[in-house]
Amino acid sequence: MSDDVPAHPTDEQSPADPDLVAFSDLARAAYCPRQCYYARADDDRGVPSEVVETMELAHRYPALRNGADLDAEPIAVPPSTYRDRLDALADRPVWPALANPSERDLYLAGKDCHGITHKLLAGTAVGTDGADDDHDEPNTAADGPAAPPVPVIVSPGAPHETGVWEPQSVRAVAAAKALAWEREREIPRALVEYPAHAVVRPVRIGVRRTAAYRRALRTARGIDGPPPRLRDSPRCEPCEYREECGIETKSLRSRLGL
Ligand code: SF4
Fold first, then answer.
1. pTM (two decimals)
2. Cβ(28) to ligand 1 under 6 A?
């Protein structure tokens, strides 16, 4: 990691209660239980420097919007698109809090899980233009000091076409549940940010998302040996434990002409 890239806190710091499951393990359990098993056995669970640099974009929006040389930044879309998206985001009520969150990299420990929320937004409406497929009411909340705080998970990857990938949804719900436990109040919403794309998506903590979170919690707690491999899943292609797992992906098979 280069000197000017800050170390990134991870979810895996030892909790006071060893039964608490790390947010990142819940996300991995939702993605592939076997990947969760490998990650837990991995001695090096630090965040690579290039991932940290991408995630740091989420803390530099005003500078990125107003003149930074975007060609030199780790963004995943053309600079003009990136700036247009930031301009659109800046028109939304959530912008001041996103650009200047009340807290960042805040460690949370709830009843069942623990980890880092990358931002905590206080006293803000969560109006964004992203779709939320688990909502049964408008995707906005009351503004002002009485509004529930909003945990934000920052992802270095690409957003889903319309909503939020399930592992990130599980992680966002976990952060909301832990925050609710600590603050002793309902936390009805979270956000997932994709700073390489300048995209922010809302996550309403509804019935379906909560059920997925509970499934991941049961799965993560139940892992006591290597779970079965996924079969012919596109999830294996980008998996960092592919070699260890021994999965031969379709693209490898086609490269080998098999
Ligand atoms: S390669 Fe596929 S089956 Fe193996 S751990 Fe990764 S995602 Fe799971």
1. 0.88
2. no
